[in-house]
Amino acid sequence: MTRAREAVVSADGTSPWPALWALVIGFFMILVDATIVTVATPALLVAFGTDVNTVVWVTSAYLLAYAVPLLVTGRLGDRFGPKNVYLAGLAVFTVASLWCGLTGTIGELIVARVAQGLGAAMMTPQTMAVITRTFPAAQRGRAMSLWGAVAGVATLTGPVLGGVLVGALGWEWIFFVNVPLGVVAFAAVWYLVPSLETSKRRFDLVGVVLSATGVFLLVFGIQEGQRYDWGPIVGPIPVWMLIVAGAVVLVVFVWWQSRTRSEPLVALQLFRDRNFSLANIAICTVGFAITAQGFPLMIYAQNVRGFSPTEAALLLVPLAVLSGALAPWTGRLTDRIHPRLIGGFGMATFAIGLFWLAAVMSPDTPVWQLLLPISLLGISNSCVWAPISTSATRNLPMEQAGSGSGVYNTTRQLGAVLGSAGIAVLMEARITALVPGAAATPDSAFAAGALPDELREPFATAMAQSVLLPAAVLVVGFVAVACFALPQHMRSRGR
After folding, report:
1. CA angle 29, 322, 350 (to 5 degrees)
2. Which of 66, 133, 164, 449 lies at a 20 to 30 A Cα distance from 396?
3. How would you label 264-296 residue by residue, b for 16+ Cβ within 10 Å and e otherwise?
4. What does the alpha-carbon distance between residue 198 and residue 132 come to, in Å, rounded to a whole number?
5. How many CB atoms within 10 Å of residue 42?
6. What are residue 121's phi and psi, to 5 degrees?
């Protein structure tokens, strides 16, 4: 049978697939939690009697704590073993989820979300590291397609799952649901994931401080810039100064990595691999687009069309279903043909789908006409994750799998933060320019439900124009993917 001949086995003769399935349970949980809270914002406002800006920190704190340590936690996997670091992170994440559901104040909930984010940061790089170290280079495409499908589907599942849980059981259950899943995932990883060889090396403490400080300043500044209208954020210090300071610290970090005689946190020779460098550019644009596309579409659906939060989120079901269903097929193709072909197709159709969606976002467009471009987005998403992630990791030395995975996931998360900040700025600018009286109308008025008839057309136009931003950013990613070199395993086969 063909399937038998194509069976993938590790160096010890066992199949690595059960281990990967065990790992992606937790990976799915942490990505869902990046978006699940959004739909619970009204319930949190009522439960804690607080304001919108404070509730926003329930999500911001998680994303910040998730993004900042990724470079470090990827390296920890090389040092202490990806299985051990993953299990420690999963334990922290699961206990923090229980803590989130039991909190009695908004401040305590924010602190618990920070703990959740730290646990997520420990887990994320280990999944890619295990794939790199257990799957043969020629057959990593299928594994990475599963990883990518989980990443794409989880990001889109969050709002739908959140709407169902909040409506049926209450906001606490968006966190409580992680507890049984976390226990199952812990047991599965404990029994199914092998303990891989570690690299006993010195840890670059200066690099840890520089990378954490630089990423924190950069992500915090970008993430909170819109909230503070890009003005003073701490006393007289403006947002832009934090962003510049973060960029400067990261430049110093790169310089230090090139000069340190200790074991560097990020081996810069990784970037000598053409595909690794290009894949980081591409995944940054994908992270940007995945995050940015949802905001204008959800606001259009609820404010212009009058859909409930759950009804609006259901518009994304074709995207999630097609992305997950086609991922195994695209993964097999990724192992057999040049990654620029299927990746380029995915990036191109991703951009085309967003341009198409922007063209049909009018007040009275039939729902089926919206679902057509959204379905194309699902097809395109199935074609981008595996080629990009496998191109990033195929040629990595095994002892640097965790470090490379940490860099890759940090880049993806930075793209997501940039997408969130960029789309917020553009939406506000287009609403102010196109919606009569928008400058004098409080934001809460636009969040209250369907708009008056006279405002539906200009508001829809503002949201449609905002969708063009992630479409344009994806063009950069398309160019990066189009420049991928032929993978080494294909050269060795004379292909």
Report:
1. 95
2. 66
3. bbbbeebeebebbebbbbbbbbbbbbbbbbbbb
4. 14
5. 14
6. -65, -30
Given a contact cutoff of 8 angstroms between Cβ atoms, the answer to whether 417 and 222 are in contact is yes
Q: How many residues does the chain have?
A: 495
**Residue 90 identity (one-letter amino acid):** L
H or E element: which one contains 232?
Answer: strand 232-234
According to DSSP, the residues that pair with 232 across neighbouring strands are 238
Nearest to 108 by CA among 61, 70, 145: 61
Structure tokens at 97: 């989820």
Per-residue pLDDT of the chain (495 residues; tens, 9 = 90+): 333 334 444 545 567 888 888 888 888 888 788 777 766 777 787 888 877 667 777 877 888 888 888 888 887 887 888 899 999 999 999 999 999 999 989 899 999 999 999 999 999 888 878 887 777 766 676 777 777 777 767 766 777 777 778 777 888 998 998 999 999 999 999 988 888 777 666 677 888 888 888 888 887 888 777 677 778 887 788 888 888 999 999 999 889 888 877 777 777 888 888 888 999 999 999 989 988 888 788 888 878 888 876 787 788 888 878 887 887 788 778 777 888 899 999 999 999 999 999 999 999 999 999 999 999 998 998 888 888 888 887 777 766 666 777 788 888 888 887 887 788 788 878 888 888 766 545 444 455 456 778 888 998 999 999 999 999 999 999 999 999 987 765 665 544
**Single-letter code of the amino acid located at 436:** P
Residue 337, SS3 per DSSP: coil
